UniProtKB/TrEMBL annotation:
A GO biological process held by the record: cobalamin biosynthetic process
Gene: cobT
Function: Catalyzes the synthesis of alpha-ribazole-5'-phosphate from nicotinate mononucleotide (NAMN) and 5,6-dimethylbenzimidazole (DMB).
Similarity comment: Belongs to the CobT family.
MF GO annotations: nicotinate-nucleotide-dimethylbenzimidazole phosphoribosyltransferase activity
InterPro entries: Nict_dMeBzImd_PRibTrfase (IPR003200), Nict_dMeBzImd_PRibTrfase_bact (IPR017846), Nict_dMeBzImd_PRibTrfase_N (IPR023195), Nict_dMeBzImd_PRibTrfase_sf (IPR036087)
NCBIfam families to which the protein is assigned, alphabetical: cobT_DBIPRT, PRK00105.1
Classification via PANTHER family: NICOTINATE-NUCLEOTIDE--DIMETHYLBENZIMIDAZOLE PHOSPHORIBOSYLTRANSFERASE
Record Gene3D superfamilies: 1.10.1610.10, 3.40.50.10210
Biological source species: Marilutibacter alkalisoli
Catalytic activities: 5,6-dimethylbenzimidazole + nicotinate beta-D-ribonucleotide = alpha-ribazole 5'-phosphate + nicotinate + H(+)
UniProt keyword Transferase, yes or no: yes
Protein's UniProt name: Nicotinate-nucleotide--dimethylbenzimidazole phosphoribosyltransferase
Length: 337
């Protein structure tokens, strides 16, 4: 559990800083939350760890993406050479970035900076059978937990999980629909850039998957049948981060679907999640509402990779700097209200 006494002390400090109470809005709330999560009256966010999990999806065969499946493996290579958005963001933040390849149809082979934890070239097409076997699900969950272990060993103060996998918005949508009991039309969005006809096709595919796996109530089983390797790895990472008391900055729609699965599996995970932004992807707001989450940003982003969470880090750093560096009314000799 977060340290309630430290959070209360941080809230009290906010009340005596040289500003009208509450005038920094969510920046105050963020600093207070981090104080409780880090168990310190002066939270900082200097050391951030980013893990990007990559994996292919069998449901790509249903034509649910605007991009070919080969892009997953090609993007793993792009991560390795530092050309992806998350690479640029990580460099700008001075964050540690690792890429974990869980299985791609277009395997780029050994690459510098890419950790190969190969489960299978792809999940199965969940319109026809469960996406993962029990052993594959366990391997993916463990891959996420192992990334958190490395982050903790490195002294990270926050964990960001990203993902890459053609068709993974379809998997995230199917998983979210199953966990929330929502219709596909309510949560299916454009993903990598589908037109109206493509979105309608995605809705049909998700409906077929939900019908194929109807009646499943256990969240871990929903994840096995409808998720992906990278979504399961994110879920495992979030659960492990909560167990290790490491704050998590959650990214967009796909990451939030994994967060919902993690919270459904272990409700205590929710206390350790900060939500970075509201994605432009349709359905993300519904997921955030289900988690009682108030995202810090709304920038119209829908890239994934952990990019929205990374973009939020400077704001959180400023929240900590304001909390730690502002003078109190007494220190500044300023009259209180």
């Amino acid at each position: 559990m977060p340290d309630a006494a430290m959070a209360e002390a941080a809230r009290a400090r906010q009340g005596v800083l040289t500003k009208p109470p509450g005038s920094l809005g969510v920046l105050e709330d963020a600093a207070v939350m981090l104080a409780g999560l880090q168990r310190t009256p002066q939270p900082t966010l200097d050391r951030v760890w980013i893990s990007v999990f990559a994996g292919d999806h069998g449901v790509a065969a249903e034509g649910v993406s605007a991009f070919p499946q080969a892009v997953t493996g090609e993007m793993v290579r792009n991560f390795a050479t530092g050309g992806a958005a998350i690479c640029v963001l990580a460099r700008g933040l001075g964050a540690t970035l690792e890429v974990v390849q869980l299985g791609t149809v277009n395997d780029p082979g050994e690459l510098p900076g890419v950790r190969r934890v190969l489960i299978a070239p792809s999940t199965a097409n969940f319109c026809e059978q469960p996406a993962m076997t029990a052993a594959q699900l366990e391997a993916a969950l463990q891959a996420g937990a192992d990334s958190v272990a490395r982050a903790v060993a490195a002294g990270a103060q926050a964990f960001v999980g990203g993902e890459m996998g053609i068709a993974n918005t379809t998997a995230a949508t199917a998983l979210a629909c199953a966990l929330l009991g929502e219709a596909p039309a309510m949560l299916s969005g454009a993903g990598t850039g589908l037109d109206a006809a493509g979105i309608a096709r995605k809705q049909t595919v998700v409906r077929r998957a939900l019908d194929r796996h109807a009646g499943i109530a256990d969240p871990a089983e929903c994840l096995r049948c409808l998720g992906g390797f990278e979504i399961a790895a994110l879920t495992g990472a979030y659960i492990a981060a909560a167990q290790q008391e490491l704050p998590v900055i959650v990214d967009g729609f796909i990451a939030t679907s994994a967060a919902l699965a993690a919270v459904r599996i272990n409700p205590g995970v929710r206390d350790w999640l900060l939500f970075s932004h509201c994605s432009h992807e349709r359905g993300h707001r519904r997921l955030l509402d289900a988690l009682d989450a108030r995202p810090l940003l709304d920038l119209g982003m829908r890239l994934g990779e952990g990019s929205g969470a990374a973009a939020c880090v400077p704001l959180l750093r400023l929240a900590c700097a304001l909390h730690n560096g502002m003078a109190t009314f007494e220190q500044a000799g300023v009259s209180t209200a």
